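User: Quick sanity check before I run a bigger batch. Here is a single chain. Can you write out its predicted 3D structure?
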Amino acid sequence: MKIKVTKSNLESVLNILVRIISTKPQLPILSCLLLEAKENQITLFATDLNIGIKTTLYGEVLEEGKVAIPAKIFLETIKSLGKNDLELNLEENTLKIKSAKSKTNIQCQNSEDFPEFPTLPELTSQFETSKLKIIEKYVSFSTSLDQARLILTTLLFRKTDESIKVVGTDGFRLSVLNLMNGDMGNHSEFLIANKAFNEIVKISDLQTQEKVQFEVSDELKQVFFRIGEVELFIRLIEGAYPPFEKIVPSGFEVTGTFDGEEFENILKQAMVFAREVSNIITLEFADGQMNISANASAKGSYEGKIEVEMIEGTKGKVSFNAKYLQDFLKNIKPGRVWFGMNDELKPVMFKEVDNDFYEYVVMPFRLNG
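Assistant: Done. Predicted structure follows.
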């Protein structure tokens, strides 16, 4: 194999591919990317067996061939070179990279060991990139990072009569987003790992694409995406998603609104002591105010107040892991927050005022005594 490419083109492609290369791969070959030169086209592949990326590289094919190249050292090498054109020449298992002023040899692996990629099917559905960013903003942060509970690391996409419902939960808090005018084609529901979804958003940014095409294959248990010149192959997560509808309260005894920025600032103050007691804070509503308190008996305590416009009810008290409230405020950045609650052991809902397409539900924390 022998090809000629520009350094800038190769580096930009590698920056996309290495995003999914694991530092601790299941198999040694997964630390590599596959480069294939065939019929005057240069194609590169990378996978961690859950996500696969395929993209093309502009260049000149002098001799056809393919090679599995250690991805991280390949990228580091290319980044270190000047802006000149590059010649890549494979001799046995050694990739020789020649630039105007240097020669580099990289020991490679057998390309036949690299996992085979499926053929991309016809893509019949699409998402606007702007809507992908909305999903990332409103839902992604609510998913779990614990791979032992795989279902909770996913986003649920479910088609309804009027919208696409996107749901994320880690078992302690829940985000529900209703996207109007979305397109899922004939697909009624699927689960995709949040990590993979975030990669789609990042790649769509890098490719500056306004729309992302996709297709769900129940037969192959994968969802396929095309973003400009990049194709992604993502393993669907199988299993029963938690019955989140049972968690969302159908009514509230106490509701009201308060300033989001003021609440975020006072939570920061409370966290000085709350972090000593598993981030637990208590909110108490009475007389048009919300009292925020954190008590770390060995270190000290904190109390602060902000004004609340009560809509229904007059009093309420509930305790939370403050991090769940901070995540909501940091990601959504609401100017004014609406809340609804019942008793101190039932889920509480938070929303942006005048935003009916998103709901954030948090499970309370039971305080002893």
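The chain is about 20% helix and 45% strand.

User: Great, the batch can go ahead then.
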